[in-house]
Write a structure and sequence with these properties.
This protein is an all-alpha fold. The chain has 17 helices and no strands.
């Protein structure tokens, strides 16, 4: 009896430790992401080194490609492992080192901009793929460590605190870019170093996680057998198939993502330091959506969250076109255009709260790494959409890009109405 009581107390302590460790890992990582945002800060920095829309679009492609592409192979590697934490520590450490070297590479820009750009891209690739390697084991540890009934609280806490501080970070970024004493590239060096420090704090927090051994440990298959199982899951799991389709179509919002900042500067004649406001707007949307969608997920399920996410995503290119129409006619448009980034924040929040929670509900525990890796890897081709976006701008114009994006995202939103709550 006493042993059972002690065991129960130890389990409660483990839950509390893991909840705090994973929460502050996410909070610090969210703040650091504001200083390394691939849709605002990174394209703005790269545009100081090159005028090529293709190269600027490559920033978002690299970030998303690195996240999605490795996950199915990682799922194969970690599926049978009783502990996933060592993989997260190894890849997470590589991610943090890469951020530090990216910051240092920015200092080379005045003397050798080409070398600065090459080094920056090289370690941005390492950062992105390191993040992708951590994805499957991190989500599996999250699912083991935080029970479903506490996940809504987790999302509300991490997105409110992390997002609120990241919202403030946007104003700090604006202040740094607006400071006449901080000339390029020193301003971006400071921004990236802040991202490095905060990402390191998140890593230290994750080190405190006390991972529980996986209860089910399938035998390790060779890669060919593992891949051959995938068509079986896709054919027999209708909810998974539909979720992958909706997730893929909604992620067409990647296509214009790095170009909203460039469009604001070149077509709407907005000032250089407007990037800080865009970051704050995105984080505000992320914060408010995190709190609201977390509660909706707890009380109504994941399906309504996915519907809201699809609607918010479809609005983004519409708002860009409307803002341009207002600009051409001399009407106020800045607040409307800034709201695009708030809805981008809603999308990022909704994907985590809605799509990933839906996935965790339909995935059997022993197949959870496979389901996570499959969802993300099948979606991987969408990471190349910003390159297509750059091509469409060169071949046609921004209007064509925004209309093209809207058509695909709207399709995903409409299909999501056919999904059922698991």
């Amino acid at each position: 009896m006493l042993q059972d009581k002690e065991k129960g107390m130890d389990e409660k302590k483990r839950l509390a430790t893991n909840f705090n460790a994973i929460s502050f890992d996410a909070i610090f990582f969210n703040i650091s992401s504001a200083f390394l945002d691939p849709s605002t800060v990174i394209p703005s920095f790269v545009s100081m080194l090159t005028n090529s829309p293709i190269l600027i679009g490559l920033t978002t492609t690299i970030r998303n490609c690195g996240w999605f592409l490795p996950q199915l192979l990682v799922a194969h590697r970690v599926e049978a492992l009783p502990y996933k934490k060592p993989i997260v520590l190894w890849a997470g450490g590589s991610l943090r080192v890469s951020i530090g070297i990216m910051a240092l590479s920015a200092l080379l820009a005045p003397r050798n901009p080409d070398l600065s750009l090459v080094l920056f891209y090289l370690f941005f690739v390492i950062l992105s793929f390191s993040d992708g390697i951590t994805g499957v084991p991190w989500i599996d540890i999250f699912a083991k460590s935080i029970p479903p009934e506490r996940r809504g609280r987790y999302y509300s806490l991490t997105q409110f605190l992390g997002g609120s501080l990241a919202f403030g970070a946007g104003f700090l970024i604006k202040g740094i870019l607006d400071n006449k004493d901080l000339v390029f590239p020193n301003n971006y060096f400071i921004i990236f170093m802040m991202g490095f420090i905060l990402a390191t704090a998140s890593f230290i927090s994750f080190c405190r996680v006390r991972e529980k051994i996986s209860e089910t440990k399938p035998a390790q298959e060779n890669l060919i057998e593992f891949l051959c199982r995938i068509p079986h899951f896709l054919m027999n799991d209708v909810p998974l198939r539909k979720l992958i389709l909706v997730n893929t179509l909604v992620r067409f919002f990647f296509m214009p993502l790095p170009f909203y900042v460039i469009f604001a500067r070149e077509n709407l004649r907005l000032p250089y330091d407007i990037v800080g406001f865009f970051v704050s707007s995105q984080m505000l949307g992320y914060v408010l959506a995190g709190v609201a969608l977390g509660r909706i997920n707890d009380h109504m399920g994941s399906r309504p969250v996915i519907l809201i996410t699809g609607f918010a995503t479809a609005l983004q290119p519409v708002l860009a076109l409307t803002s341009y129409w207002l600009y051409l006619r001399g009407y106020p448009f800045i607040l409307l255009y800034t709201s695009i980034f708030a809805f981008i924040g809603v999308t990022y929040s909704g994907v985590w709260v809605g799509i990933f929670n839906y996935l965790l509900k339909i995935a059997p525990e022993e197949k959870r790494p496979l389901y996570i890796g499959l969802l993300n890897t099948v979606t991987a081709p969408t990471t190349f959409l910003p390159i297509l976006g750059g091509f469409l701008i060169n071949r046609f114009n921004y209007t064509f890009l925004f209309v093209f994006t809207f058509a695909f995202v709207l399709s995903g939103f409409l299909i999501s109405f056919t999904m059922k709550e698991p």
